[in-house]
Amino acid sequence: MSLYKQWTDMVVEYVKYKGEQAFWAEYMEIETAIYKDLLSRHKEVVTVTIEDLAKKHNTTPEFIMGFVDGINDSLKAPKDLEALTATDEISLEIDLEKLYFNMLDAKAEYLYTLPQWEGIFSVEKRKEIQKKYRDSVIVRNENKIGRNDPCTCGSGKKYKKCCGK
Questions:
Q1: Nearest-CA neighbor of 94 among 78, 68, 76, 108?
Q2: Are 58 and 76 in contact (CB under 8 A)?
Q3: Quick check: 98 and 73 in contact, CB under 8 A?
Q4: pLDDT tens across 146-159, in order?
Q5: 156 phi-psi bin (left φ>0, alpha ψ -120 to 50, beta other)
Q6: What is the pTM of this model?
Q7: What end-to-end distance do the CA atoms of the chain give, in Å?
Q8: pLDDT tens profile 101-148
Q9: 44 CB neighbour count, 10 Å cutoff
Q10: C-alpha span between 95 and 64 (Å, rounded)
Q11: H-assigned helices in 41-88
């Protein structure tokens, strides 16, 4: 069984027996510790095995696999999660701008407000990324219906005399 499958199975079991709140509390603590470490060393590419990262942060390889799953979209070279084993050496070359954006998207305030970001991006740069994120989630209807256009319901009436009332 792949480590990724073990991770997903472990999450299901954990939530079943200890509850979702307990799972997130433990996972967020581990994730925060790892990000503090990685962001404080943001100028270097960290290369490590999942097993060694688990030992360093006093957790299981499954939780580290969950971390890798979470950061994978922000890596310059995403990993094949199904193929990873605990002893594989992985290179965590992070696209920091994309990581910050993805943290905003995940609504992970506990991560995008870490003080380590201050040493990476200026306040202005973080605001710029936040603006890009907000713009990406705003839905704009560019096909505005005019008052005198035919109604979209198909009645044949003008919009103002039908659904536009």
A1: 76
A2: no
A3: yes
A4: 889 898 888 999 98
A5: left
A6: 0.81
A7: 60
A8: 999 999 999 999 999 999 999 999 999 999 999 999 887 777 888 889
A9: 9
A10: 19
A11: 50-56, 61-71
Question: Each residue of 57-79: b (16+ CB within 10 Å) or e?
Answer: bebbbbbbbbbbebbbebbeeeb
The C-alpha R_g of the chain, in whole angstroms, comes to: 22
pLDDT tens digit string along 40-96? 999 999 999 999 999 999 999 999 999 999 999 999 999 999 999 999 999 999 999
User: What per-residue string of b and e applies to 84-115 under the rule 16 or more CB within 10 Å gives b?
Assistant: bebeeebebebebbebbbbbbeeebeebbebe
d(CA 147, CA 144): 10
3-state secondary structure of 165: coil
Written as one letter, the residue type at 109 is E
**DSSP character for 47?**
E
Tokens of 56: 């360093």
Q: Read out DSSP for 86-113? A: TT-EEEE-B-HHHHHHHHHHTT-HHHHT
Selected residue with higher pLDDT from 160 and 56: 56
Helix (H) or strand (E) holding 127, with range, is: helix 123-137
Mean pLDDT of 24-46: 95
